[in-house]
Write a structure and sequence with these properties.
The chain has helices at residues 2-11, 20-26, 47-60, 113-121, 139-144, 203-207, 242-253, 265-271, 298-316, 333-340, 372-385, 419-438, 451-454, 461-474, and strands at 16-17, 40-43, 64-67, 85-88, 95-99, 104-107, 125-127, 160-167, 172-174, 215-226, 230-238, 259-264, 284-292, 359-367, 393-400, 405-414. By secondary structure, it is α+β, with helices and mostly antiparallel strands.
């Protein structure tokens, strides 16, 4: 084939794969998205090869779907068009630089959570991290897909600064302050950590959540933090989630706690690595991990936070249960949680979201924290209407940027080998999605099945038209991930 000859010239024949077994592996993931085989897999090793493949695809009108991770949950890399290329960036796995002074790391898209965390720990650092990500997930991909960190301080609101990208029209580009010509040269103050620009546009905003429809990111600069010198974990168990909302606002407004999250008993059991615990754990629990960083006075950092919890918080909410150990959890869980919330899920263990029934479908959206009880009620009501046990629904509530908003994640666990369960969860997820949209939930992660509903709303048409115009500018031949988002 002429295309494969061109690709072989671009990356080398040994990096082109069309074996049916390999194509089958790339045709599906853990989502409910129907499988679709690509025409060929192309493994690229650097930004120059990314550019060459994009130029070849433009000449021939061939769709490209980028894939930077070794594991996928949301259907983002499954082709929507026949005869497509999957561009595998997993071999672009260099940690280019660890900037200890400014607390940033320069990485390629194939760098995984396990790889990054292990390297950073050797230097006394850690990446700010989502809740127990898969060890083989791409760090850059997760941040570009708008995962939220469990450390919900304002300075962690945007985790990627400058990016090196190849647009769909076949041009290289650098976003943010790394675009300065003298970036990283001696005497230059441009360190790439300012994400604004170049010029008056915030190009990084175009790339977030775009699922590879505008360009392919070849490198990025991500925030890191010191490993804490001291930690202490507090639990706030409750029968109903409503009991935790106002106290959690109090914690956030006083900057108490590094990691802060709310989970129900199903998700708490999954985090602890044993779903048999869910019947003994509280219905709901808020978790906060206080951290004293080594660069300051770690003991004092802990003490003022502890004082607030035991005195002011308790005074404001006298019925709030404050515990240093989680009832129903194994001994030592409070110390384990402080450690495991800074790491990816261990590769040698079955991934925690799959350990209950084999898989789960996630419904993820944003909302003010105060509206969480409404959305819990709505979603549970939908599940009950299909006779799906609410005791099988995991719930994870992650505050964002010191309580500015929160990400809500409903996990519908099911047996992927049972077609009846698969179809049931598909129906529940779709109806719950529609109900949540109608009640004002904001979807900033447009995965398979979400865009058809969210972008189909009359009130979204102006936004849809705007995105289509942007798409035409950066990818005029529409070769990058056609069929994703609203295209």
């Amino acid at each position: 084939m002429i295309l494969q000859e061109e690709l072989a010239n671009a990356v080398g024949a040994e990096y082109i794969f069309d074996d049916p077994k390999i194509l089958e592996e790339y045709s599906k993931d853990y989502s409910l998205t129907p499988p679709q085989k690509p025409l060929v897999i192309v493994k690229v090793k650097n930004a120059d090869e990314v550019l060459k493949v994009i130029l070849s695809a433009n000449d021939d009108g061939i769709p490209i779907y980028p894939s930077s991770s070794k594991v996928h949950f949301y259907g983002g890399t499954i082709p929507r068009k026949d005869g497509a290329i999957i561009m595998d960036l997993s071999d672009m796995d260099r940690i280019v630089e660890i900037d200890e002074m400014n607390r940033w790391v320069h990485i390629e898209p194939g760098v995984t959570w396990e790889q990054l965390q292990s390297e950073l720990e050797k230097k006394g650092f850690r990446s700010v991290i989502p809740l127990l990500p898969h060890a083989d997930r791409s760090v850059l991909m997760d941040w570009l897909e708008r995962e939220q960190p469990t450390a919900c301080k304002f300075e962690y609101g945007e985790m990627v600064a400058s990016m090196w990208v190849v647009w769909g029209l076949g041009e290289k580009f650098v976003t943010g302050s790394a675009a300065v010509n003298t970036f990283r040269q001696p005497g230059c103050y441009a360190d790439g950590v300012n994400m604004q620009g170049p010029g008056t546009l915030d190009f990084w905003r175009f790339l977030q959540g775009s699922q590879g429809t505008l360009g392919i990111v070849a490198k990025g600069i991500c925030k890191i933090e010191h490993l804490p010198a001291k930690t202490k974990t507090f639990f706030f168990p409750a029968k109903e989630v409503e009991e935790l909302i106002n106290p959690f606002y109090g914690l956030g407004h006083r900057y108490v706690g590094n990691e802060r999250l709310i989970v129900n008993h199903v998700t708490a059991a999954g985090i602890l690595g044993d779903y048999n615990l869910k019947s003994s754990l509280p219905n709901w629990v808020a978790i906060t991990v206080l951290a004293g960083l080594p660069v300051g006075r770690p003991q004092e950092m802990l003490e003022y936070q502890i004082d607030y919890i035991h005195n002011e918080l308790k005074k404001s909410f006298p019925n709030l249960v404050i515990a240093e150990k989680l009832e129903g959890a194994p001994a030592g869980s409070e110390e384990r949680l402080a450690r495991i919330l800074t790491k990816p899920w261990p590769r040698e263990k079955l991934y925690w979201k799959h350990a209950y029934k084999g898989n789960c479908q996630e419904l993820i959206f944003m909302s003010p924290l105060r509206r969480v009880p409404e959305f819990v009620s709505i979603t549970f009501e939908v599940a009950k209407s299909y006779d799906y046990p609410t005791d099988d629904i995991g719930v994870y509530i992650q505050p964002v940027e010191d309580m500015r908003a929160c990400q809500i994640d409903f996990m519908f666990h099911y047996n992927p080998k049972n077609p009846t369960e698969v179809e049931l969860v598909r129906k529940i997820n779709k109806e719950a999605l529609i109900r949540v949209v109608n009640f004002g939930g904001y979807f900033n992660r447009i995965y398979d099945g979400v865009g058809e509903i969210v972008y189909g709303l009359p009130r979204a048409q102006g936004y849809v038209n705007y995105i289509r115009r942007v798409k035409k500018l950066f990818d005029p031949n529409e070769i990058l991930s056609p069929g994703k988002l609203c295209f």
